[in-house]
Design the sequence.
């Protein structure tokens, strides 16, 4: 039964290809190029959408990874030390050389 079905499909395919081969028309249907460019535009939009989605996924994963990686870091309070000005009196009176 299966061989008969496959042979029948092959026969129909050969008949269809033979009939297509006999067609001698060189006329392009009206609106063919418009539909081609429309389809090309749809394909470009789909590719751009996939690119934006992949970019968003990468940015999201990097942000989540950075957030998860830093959330467990212990916090330590330290005094701010400016080594450039260590020990210097930077009050306005000293800077202007004014005696109190």
Sequence:
């Amino acid at each position: 039964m299966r061989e008969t079905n496959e042979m029948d499909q092959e026969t129909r395919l050969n008949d269809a290809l033979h009939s297509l081969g006999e067609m001698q028309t060189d006329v392009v249907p009206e609106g063919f190029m418009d539909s081609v460019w429309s389809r090309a535009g749809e394909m470009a939009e789909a590719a751009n959408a996939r690119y934006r989605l992949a970019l968003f996924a990468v940015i999201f994963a990097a942000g989540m990874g950075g957030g998860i990686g830093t959330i467990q870091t212990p916090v330590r309070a330290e005094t701010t030390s400016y080594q450039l000005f260590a020990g210097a009196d930077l009050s306005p009176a000293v800077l202007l050389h004014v005696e109190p």
Remarks:
- Residues 32-71 form one domain.
- The chain has a mean pLDDT of 79.
- Residues 32-71 form the longest helix (40 residues).
- The two ends are 114 Å apart (CA to CA).
